[in-house]
Amino acid sequence: MKILTIEDNRELASSIYDYLAQEHYVCELVSNVVQAKEKLLLYSYDCVILDIMLPDGSGMDILHFIKEAHLGCSVLIVSAKGALDDKIEGFENGADDYITKPFHLPELHARLKAIHRRNRLDGSNLLVFNELLLNTDSFALLVHNQAIEVTRKEFELLLYFLVNRDRVLSKQAIASHLWGDYTYDLDNVDFVYQHVKNLRKKLSTANAVDYIDTVYGLGYKFNSHKT
Fold this sequence. Notes:
Blueprint: E1 2-6, H1 10-22, E2 26-30, H2 33-42, E3 47-51, E4 53-54, E5 57-58, H3 59-68, E6 74-79, H4 84-92, E7 97-100, H5 105-120, E8 126-129, E9 132-135, E10 140-143, E11 146-148, H6 152-163, E12 168-170, H7 171-179, H8 191-205, E13 212-215, E14 219-222
Parallel strand pairs: 1-2, 1-3, 3-6, 6-7
Antiparallel strand pairs: 4-5, 8-9, 9-10, 10-11, 12-14, 13-14
Helix pairs in contact: 2-3, 6-8
C-alpha cells in the first residue's frame, strides 16, 4: 500500500513514516496544503492520512480537492480530541475513517488496513482470482492451493496488478507505487522489468496462467480474460 501523510508536526510525521516503513508500506510526507495538492496531482496513492490543522489552511480543503478531482484514494482524517464538527464534516465529504490525537501507531495501522480491505478488497483480507489466492495479512500467495514463495515486493506487485486488472500500468507507475515517488527522478526504471520477470517465472513454475502481458512502449497489463 502507498500512503501520503499530510502532517505538519515533524515528530509525529516522522514516527508515522518510520512505523509504516517497518511494516513495508511506501510512505510519502508533506506538511502543508500546497505540497499536498502538488503530490496528489502528480502521483497516485492508496490512502491519505490527513491532518485537519495545517499551517496554510485546513485539511478539509484537501478533502474537497480529492473529491472534486475524483482521485480515488481513501482518506483517514487525523484531528484533535473532541473535534466533533471536523469528524462530521469529514464523513459528509467522503472521508473513510477518523482517528483522534493522541493515538497509538498500531491503531493507525489497523485502521489503514481496514480501509484498504473495504475499498479495494471487498472487505476481506483474501483476494482470490481463479487459481490465485493472496492473503494481505500474512502476505502469503497460493497457486492451485499450494503456497508459493515470493518476496514482499513480488507480492505487492501481484496485488497491484490484480487490483488494477485489465488496465495498462506504466513501468513508472509501478515503480512509484512499490518504491516511492523518488523514482520519478531516476533516469530509468528498468529494475521493474526484472521484478515482473521474476514474478512471472514463479507463477509459471506453479502452473498459473500467464496473465501478465507486456504492452510494448507502455508497460504491463494483468489480462483477466486469459484462461
